[in-house]
């Protein structure tokens, strides 16, 4: 999979990282290695800096050693990966040892000029060791991830075998026994696929996984009642059709999950979405605006063809029997205006090319603006039609009149009434299916397009299943099982209507620019753009935060009882400080100032730390208690101020610095309390803790390999070892 980077000096790019867990596991290691390499630009170091570099190098080596131990244990338990994993672990251990040797103070020599120590004389060796370490660690993580995929496939296979048994049972007693087993297997599969869904980096795959898992969740209850109905009425054709439909849909959903996790060519990533108007408008507008940069990148004829292909997609709106005359005319009028504006642009473009213009002429610029405006009008028009149609349908169908009528007619054994209301439900289904198709055109993002397609398929499938369930009840009106079965399918229909309402809200949010993963009070806040001087100031604050939190990490290492509230919560604040620091360098998880403020809001949870500190203060003598309580009140005030500041939408740059500064003070106080705890705690000395910890280490690591929290294969243990590399950086 990966060649050693030592030989060619290049980091292996063949290892594609597809999950967040692997990516996040590598971040601390990359940060520390970057720090070590950057220090090589100034070979002469002060004693303090040298000590910091030494700690980083030694800590990297120790952490890699623990990491490799888990990787080797995984290789022992999975023979098919033994050779690859063993080689990757060997390379990682060798690189970790090399880094430790290169950062060893004992091997550094003092300079004859000023007595300072010179380190990193072998720059090439450090770079090679760093690249080898990153390559080998990444390979170990990717191999471990393959084990998780194998576990999902194994779980799916167990579900399929039990599903086949369920389909063939002939007695209630046998069905109850096998369905109990099936339920347990589905719970395990849901757990594994849920973790995988959250871990995926690709938002399209995540949306497809969510759709498949939603089908499995809803179909599990349908399978129960449909199978029971078929067992009770074995000669009923409509009951058999109803049951067969559920089994078929479950098998398709199971296969879709496997296609996603294994990236099978037949489906998953390579399954094409229908061509949407939104994407057509985005591509066309991009082509138009690119003319400002290059007049000769494409031809006027190709732009005309691109517009006609876009207009053709609007036929889903204009040809629909449910589109009003006014709506149809409005869309056609906007399309005609877009044609006219595009033709003017093409004429100006041809004229500019004829005189060999190097950039867009004034006539072209005017035509570009007009074309973009008319295309924007088209987007607004189709969005208004699709969203208006969906809103009206949800209002009408929210009353569930056909469903209630079908339930009543079925319970009365009235086959004619069931047939009549089945036709009405079919018409309703067709309206919903077409509306989902229109929403797909205007959804605005590929994950939402996938959700629209899922909604369309769900209405298309469940509609006929409700009808077959109602027919069964009408044939057996006294059957409680048949009645329960119809209820379950009707509930699934109602649930999909609720999901459609949420989908509609998401599409509106995207259209209006409100969509985001921040808290509600941050949605209207605007990102703050900082000038060079302010960025430097923030970077200095961030660096100080990082150094302070590193001191905290060093102190916390003496206290390995992670369950202790003060240690755990203080370390959590230090981790947040690290994220803030990475933001000032343009790295890490925080991408915008809005993300920064959200992190500050989370940091205000330091109030929980105050409660633990109050309890701790009761163990101190009066003088010590007075000091702690004084500082504690300061921490409470700062956290409250941070809470208020973070929840206030910002309208300028001042709030940015205020929030960062308050966070800095919070971390300062946390460091004070943890250091105070390490000196005064009556729970035992750090050495006692360390001895007990070392004695229990082998047992704990072995347990991690077999626990459910580690997915049974130790991947979580790998993540935890690497996440522990939250070490000292020093400039």
Summarize the helices and strands and which ones pair or pack:
Elements: H1 5-8, H2 20-38, E1 44-45, H3 47-77, H4 82-102, E2 109-110, E3 117-118, H5 123-168, H6 172-199, H7 203-232, H8 237-262, H9 277-289, H10 300-313, H11 315-318, H12 325-354, H13 362-397, H14 401-412, H15 415-442, H16 446-475, H17 480-511, H18 532-556, H19 565-584, H20 593-603, H21 607-617, H22 622-647, H23 654-680, H24 686-706, H25 715-723
Antiparallel strand pairs: 1-3, 2-3
Helix pairs in contact: 2-5, 2-25, 3-4, 3-5, 3-25, 4-5, 5-6, 5-8, 6-7, 7-8, 7-16, 7-17, 8-16, 9-10, 9-13, 10-12, 12-13, 13-15, 13-17, 14-15, 14-16, 14-17, 15-16, 16-17, 18-19, 18-23, 19-20, 19-21, 19-23, 20-22, 20-23, 21-22, 22-23
What's this, in brief?
This protein is mostly helical and 731 residues long. It contains 25 helices and three strands.
Can you walk through the features of this model?
- With 731 residues, the chain is an all-alpha fold.
- 76% of the residues lie in helices and 1% in strands.
- The protein contains 25 helices and three strands.
- It has a three-stranded antiparallel sheet.
- β2 (109-110) and β3 form a beta hairpin.
- α4 runs antiparallel to α5, α9 runs antiparallel to α10 and α13 packs antiparallel against α15.
- The longest helix has 46 residues, at 123-168.
